Amino acid sequence: MSPPPLDQQVTFLYTQDLETSHAFYAGVLGLPLVLDQGTCRIYRVSGTAFVGLCRRAVAANPDGIILTLVSADVDGWHAHLVAHGVPIEKPPSYNPAYNITHCFLRDPNGYLLEIQTFHDPAWPAA
Question: Which CATH architecture has domain 9-118?
């Protein structure tokens, strides 16, 4: 028996400062806010993929979490982020082990974000 289909995906991250997180995810990254639940705000990343930011008095340790956003224009994202004063952890580079180009940055909560392009033709297109 096959499992029922999954329709959407949401990744929830914690923040102590919801307004600063909103300014970054909506303002800098340009993700549309689709649902404001008061202490949680959910943003559309693409199609049926979302990221939610939830206010917590004590935020979770962001180590070990990487939120990867896939784009065909890693260099363009890098330029956009630099223009908005976002510190870059690693500028765009090619990773031959995974056949990707990527760069890394941190959101205001310390979560590691990766902007990545897959060069493998087996990767499903959007």
Answer: Roll (3.10)
